């Protein structure tokens, strides 16, 4: 049985990347907590992980070489958050408490994924050394 | 590595909040600077925040930092005080006080410093996450 790194590391190699992107999105929400008109965003974990594992992107298909490449602009797995209160006075929908809690949760989940990866690596190392 | 972008975003927010703290300090320091004409009187200043649009428009870029678009002076009416004995009083005996609301400024200051702290913590947790990533697979 050959060791396949892709199979051995499983889904965790992709989930680390998705958590990283989510950290970025949440950090930009918190940074813009006082920006008028800013709308809070979040990553749909399911969609992001699916596109990360399958490697699919949402670009428009081109039928001619001379077409302009239709970039998706903003990734489709990033969605706007439904605000907790209808109007904050300046059009900002960031709730700092929610964002901070989500950021902390995301960072714990990131570390969980990392420790999964770590144990997979040490398993493989044991197999290689034959101890 | 998108985690490195967290530092840029949190850093831009920290600098924006420190501009806000600066204007608050200037407003509070000048809260009692009177003058003899409405034009010369200090007016409260506030920063205007905006999302960094050049980054928001770029494809594949979900993280958006903060820009300080500019500093605006408040349009609130100045406070006229009848004080003929004041050395800066005009011919009618009035001095003009700035339109700084000290309570508002204190609340602004607390809000700015809390936001600053939050962004420092975000950068700190991003650093911890990166450190853990760098140590990946080094344990036995």
Question: How would you describe this structure to a colleague?
Answer:
The complex is a heterodimer of chains A (131) and B (140). With 131 residues, chain A is mainly α. Chain A has one domain (18-129). Chain A contains four helices and two strands. A two-stranded antiparallel sheet of chain A has the order 1-2. In chain A, helix 2 crosses helix 3 (45-54) and helix 2 (12-31) packs antiparallel against helix 4 (96-129). The model of chain A has no long low-confidence stretch (mean pLDDT 82). Chain B is of the alpha+beta class. In chain B, 46% of the residues lie in helices and 16% in strands. Chain B has three helices and four strands. In chain B, helix 1 runs antiparallel to helix 3 (102-134). Chain A binds chain B through residues 16, 20-21, 23-25, 27-28, 30-36, 38, 41, 43, 71-75, 78, 96, 100, 103-104, 107, 110-111, 114, 117-118, 121-122, 125, and chain B through 1-3, 5-6, 9-10, 12-13, 16-17, 20, 48-51, 57, 59-60, 62-66, 111, 115, 118-119, 121-122, 125-126, 128-129, 132-133, 136-137, 139-140.
**Which percent band covers the strand fraction of chain B?**
15-25%
Anisotropy-based shape of chain B: elongated
Overall average pLDDT of chain A? 82
SSE string of chain A, helices as H and strands as E? HHEHEH
What percent of the residues of chain B sit in helical stretches (DSSP H or I)? 40-55%
Binned, the helix content of chain A reads 40-55%
Number of E strands of chain B: 4
Assembly type: heterodimer
Structural class of chain A: mainly alpha
Total domain modules of chain B: 1
In short:
Chain A has 131 residues and is mainly alpha-helical. Chain A is 53% helix and 5% strand. A two-stranded antiparallel ribbon of chain A has the order 1-2.
């Amino acid at each position: 049985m050959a060791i396949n790194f892709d199979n051995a590391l499983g889904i965790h190699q992709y989930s680390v990347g998705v958590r990283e992107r989510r950290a970025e999105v949440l950090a930009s929400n918190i940074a813009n907590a006082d920006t008028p008109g800013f709308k809070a965003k979040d990553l749909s974990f399911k969609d992001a992980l699916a596109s990360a594992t399958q490697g699919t992107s949402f670009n428009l298909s081109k039928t001619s070489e001379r077409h302009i490449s239709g970039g998706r602009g903003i990734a489709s797995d990033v969605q706007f958050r439904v605000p907790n209160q209808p109007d904050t006075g300046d059009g900002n929908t960031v709730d700092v408490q929610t964002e901070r809690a989500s950021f902390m949760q995301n960072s714990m989940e990131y570390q969980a994924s990392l420790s999964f990866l770590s144990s997979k690596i040490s398993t493989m190392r044991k197999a290689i050394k034959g101890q | 590595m998108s985690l490195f972008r967290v530092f840029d975003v949190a850093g831009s927010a920290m600098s924006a909040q420190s501009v806000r703290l600066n204007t608050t300090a200037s407003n509070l320091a000048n809260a009692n600077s009177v003058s003899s004409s409405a034009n010369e009187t200090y007016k409260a200043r506030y920063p205007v925040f905006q999302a960094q649009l050049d980054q928001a428009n770029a494809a594949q870029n979900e993280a958006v930092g903060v820009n300080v678009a500019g500093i605006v002076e408040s349009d609130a009416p100045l406070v006229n005080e009848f004080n003929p004995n004041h050395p800066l009083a005009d011919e009618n005996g009035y001095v003009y006080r700035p339109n700084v609301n000290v309570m508002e400024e204190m609340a602004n200051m607390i809000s700015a410093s809390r936001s600053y702290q939050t962004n420092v913590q975000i950068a700190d947790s991003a650093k911890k996450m990166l450190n853990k990533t760098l140590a990946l697979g080094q344990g036995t």
